[in-house]
Amino acid sequence: MATPNPSPRRARGRPRGWDDKTDQNTIKSLDRAMEVLDYVSQHQGKALSELATEMDQSPATLYRVLVTLETRGLVEFDPEEQAWHIGPQAFIIGARFLRRTTLVERARPIMRRLMEVTGETANLGVETSGQVLFVSQVETHASIRAFFPPGTLSQMHASGIGKALLAEMDDARLTRLLNNQPLTAFTEHSITDADALRAELALTRSRGYAIDGEEKNIGMRCIAAPVFDFNNEPVAGISVSGPTSRVGTGDIDRLSAAVMQAATDLTTAIGGVTRHDPGT
To answer: Where is this region: Disordered (predicted)?
Structure first.
């Protein structure tokens, strides 16, 4: 007697309807809580009334969500300021994500060496939702230094790492990003014209490194280069940043060579494929 063919085995941990993301397979209250957590993480130090107004939510409903998140340590309330902040458990969860990736782990010794060679703060960032997310940093020992703690977000057009990654994007993706992200003027040096930015990105790609010349913060300069994965796709940027008094225009050649070497070393360390040589 022939036995019937067994039904296809589902992947472990994936129930039926895994690919169905409709409302029936989502928990609305949990989704709302995640939205609140994300908003508080980006707009810390605000009162309940401010958050409710900005998120267009009922203060009573929002308060219940915040208290629930507070019991888990994901947010915390400052009674003196009467304001809500991201909580320590959010950092712990984020740190677990970083431990999952080899990028940050492999980058640490390379960033430490880059800091020692240049004397300036070394940074590692990735692109997320059209912004640069700083995921690691090795600070210089100098008293005046740049500081981008892990978790900091920055607009890409005004960031050395951001421009290094933008320069490697295909034109269709770059166009979508520029259409969706305003080119905010942070300083008088910020690039706010799309054509001017495209010209800057072409120069960045040709020479192999990007420069943030006081475009986000007056008195600070950053030099960055892209890191590639095994598909030759840009997955991160590595940079050095410091005050213009130490990172002057006359220091760019020396510092950019060190940054590009660090980017190449990290690309190799994660099994990536380095892009063509600058200028080719």
So the answer is: 1-24
Q: Is 181 left (phi over 0), alpha (psi -120 to 50) or beta?
A: beta
Do residues 184 and 114 both lie within one domain?
yes
CA torsion, ordered 109, 111, 117, 118, to nearest 10 deg: -170
The 3-state secondary structure of 127-187 reads EECCEEEEEEEECCCCCCCCCCCCCCEEEHHHCHHHHHHHCCCCHHHHHHHHHHCCCCCCC
Residues 87, 105: one domain?
Answer: no
Q: Residue 137: which CATH number?
A: 3.30.450.40
pLDDT in tens, 150-198: 788 899 999 999 999 999 999 999 999 888 889 999 999 999 999 999 9
In a domain, 4, yes or no: no
- Integer angstrom CA distances of residue 24 from 69, 82, 167: 24, 37, 41
Facing residues of 223 across strands?
A: 211, 240
- 3-state DSSP call for residue 205? helix
Residue found under tokens 């050649």: 253
Cβ-proximal residues to 75 (8 Å cutoff; 6+ apart), any chain: 37, 40, 66, 69, 84, 85, 86, 87, 90
